[in-house]
C-alpha cells in the first residue's frame, strides 16, 4: 500500500512549539535514575557545585606541576652534575690542599706506626748526615759565638 | 540551534564557560551519579568518581565534536572513570575485578546508604557476578531504561551485540532469582 506523504503533513499531526528543541532536557524523564535500595546523604546533590569541581581541577594542576618539577628538576640536577664532572675531573681531585692533609694528620685522624714511616720514607732520608751536614754544624757554632772552652766548662 | 549545541558552544567559550558549566552540573549531576553508583555501588566511591568525571568533562569539552549526543559522551566518560576506578581499587587490594565486585556487593548489607531488602541484595550480588559487558548493558537497559542505540554509543558496541548480551544477562539473573524462590 502506498503511503501518501501529504497525510503526514496534515495539520492534525502537530507537536507543541519548541518540542524538538526541548527533547534533550527531557531525555532523562524516561530513565529510572535511582535504583531501589540505594540512598544518598541528606542534601548531597545540593552540595555538589562548580566550585568543588574547579578546586579539584586546581589541585590536579598543582599536582601535575609539582610532579613535573620533581621529575625534570632531578633529571636536570643529574645532568648538570654529570656535565661538571666530565668537564672538570681534576678540579674535584685538587680541592684538598696540603694544609688540610697536615691538619688531618695532626688531628690524630691518622696514626702511623714506626714501621709505616719506614715504609713511606727512604732509609737515606732518615740518616743523620742527610738531615744536618758538617758545614751546618760549624756555621752554627760560629754564628752563636760560643767558644770551645765555654762549651767544655759549662 | 538546539539547547544541547548551544550549551556545548557556551562551554567552549571562555566568557560563558562558568555559567554553562553550572547549568551542565545542575542538569546532569543526578543522572551521572546514579549511573556511577550502580557500577561502583558505594556512595563515597561514587562521589569521588562523579567529581573526576566532571573534571574530565570540563577539560575535554573542547575536543567534543558533536558526533554523538552530549549526554552519551558524558555517560561514556562516567563509565570509563568508574571501570578504571574499580580496576585500580582491585589492584590496590591485590584482588581480581570479579572478586572486588563480589566483595562490594556483599558489603552493601552493612552500607548505611543501602536499605534494600534481601531480594535487592541478591539482585545486586548477581549483577556484580555478571561479565563486565553484560553487567553494564543490564544496568543501563533494565535499571535505567535507556535505548539500545544510546547504550551502543556509550559502550562502543553494536546494537545487535548489546541485545545478545542483555538477553544472556536477563536469562542468568532470572534463573538465579527463581531458583531459590518459594511460592
CATH fold-level topology of the largest domain in chain B: Rna Polymerase Sigma Factor, Chain: A
Approximate strand percentage of chain B: under 5%
Count of DSSP helices of chain B? 9
Poorly predicted tracts of residues of chain A? 19-25
Which secondary-structure class do the elements of chain B indicate? mainly alpha
Distance between the termini of chain A: 155 Å
Domain module count of chain B: 2
Radius of gyration of chain A: 49 Å
Mean pLDDT of chain B: 89
The interface involving the most residues is between: A-B, 30 and 41 residues
Portion of residues in beta strands of chain A equals: under 5%
Give the overall form of chain A: rod-shaped
Radius of gyration of chain B, CA atoms, in whole angstroms:
18 Å
Total E-strand runs of chain B: 0
CATH architectural designation of the largest domain in chain B: Orthogonal Bundle
How would you describe what is shown here?
The complex is a heterodimer of chains A (154) and B (183). In chain A, 62% of the residues lie in helices and 0% in strands. Chain A is built from 11 helices and no strands. The longest helix of chain A has 38 residues. With 183 residues, chain B is mostly helical. In chain B, helix 1 packs across helix 2, helix 2 crosses helix 4 and helix 4 packs across helix 5. Chain B is globular and about 60 Å long. The relative contact order of chain B is 0.10. The chains are: A mainly alpha (154), B mainly alpha (183). The interface between A and B is large, with 30 and 41 residues.
Keywords:
heterodimer; A: 154 residues; mainly alpha; 11 helices; B: 183 residues; Rna Polymerase Sigma Factor, Chain: A; Arc Repressor Mutant, subunit A; 9 helices; 75% helix
Write the layout of secondary structure elements.
The complex is a heterodimer of chains A (154) and B (183).
Chain A: H1 5-8, H2 19-22, H3 44-47, H4 50-87, H5 89-93, H6 98-106, H7 114-120, H8 123-126, H9 128-131, H10 134-143, H11 148-153
Chain B: H1 3-12, H2 17-40, H3 43-60, H4 70-92, H5 97-107, H6 118-128, H7 132-143, H8 148-155, H9 159-179
Helix pairs in contact in B: 1-2, 2-3, 2-4, 3-4, 4-5, 4-8, 5-6, 6-9, 7-9
